[in-house]
Amino acid sequence: MIPSVLLSRDILQLISAYQPGVLEDMVPLATAFQKPSSACQLDDLLHQWLAHHGPSRLPLLYKYLPHFERVVLLHAVTTGQIDILPTFEPLSECPDKLVDVAAAAGQLQVVRHLLSIPYTAGIATAMTSAASHGHLHIVKYLTNHRSDRQTPRVMDAPAANGHLEVVRFLHYYRREGCTTQAMDQAAANGHLEVVHFLHTHRQEGCTKSAMDLAAGNGHLHVLEWLHEHRQEGWSPDAMTNAAASGHVKVLEWLDKYKPHGGHSMHAMDVAASNGHLKVVQYLHEHRTDGCSDKALEGARANGHADVVEYLETHKDKLIHRMCCTCGFMKLVHHECL
InterPro entries of this UniProt entry (predicted)? Predict the structure, then answer.
């Protein structure tokens, strides 16, 4: 009698329902869920768990780990496991905008399934999410089957991420257009083909931020093209951005076309704070503005010993402070009449 009771799966589950803890196969899932840094690991574990047990064990998983119902739902939507979706009723009570989530993940079959229910939470932003991630097939599907109005961000987002084919489709088949953010951010991220397309086919143009941001990210080829084909130019922020990120070649290029442009003192301050010794040396050799106390303070605070040593060695000709007599920034050791 006793062995038959102990070997009964149904009785074992009944007994374990009144015991603390979870079933053995669910322990890795429960452990990973408790660590925010383990999101990718959790997704992989859940994928393996579902592959082994299938949807039939999900009710038991939700019984022991109720919070996993939402986790499994999002996993199903982002991985295209439509067979799991019918286990969630009603979907309308889900706080997540599932159409948007599916569109961002490129899961066209899930988008179709949700819209057929019908479930439309997240439809307003779905096209922008799909476009932003380069999912042209979903952008086309929503264009052909929905009439939801979009904002110009629907083109701004894919332009920023370099999805030229999406930008091209939106230009020819939709009317929302874009803003100057499209070219600005495409330039910032080095997507010259997108910049060229927008310049050739659109009228919105860009702002000085296009070159300022491209300089900060070291995209010299974009700077050269914009300088040759556009008139916006760049602001003093271009030098600061390039210096902050350690792009000496960009600084050389900026100096070539604007020898006295930019705030070189602030540029050296941020370069020193970020540990870019070559930038500090370049600015020291080619500019006369030097730096402020912030350069040495920042380099010390961030542990850039080589920069600290260089600034200490040349501080008499580099470091400027506010003169208490005239109120101007001057070298530490100076005479003010």
Answer: Ankyrin_rpt (IPR002110), Ankyrin_rpt-contain_sf (IPR036770), SecEffector_AnkRepeat (IPR052050)
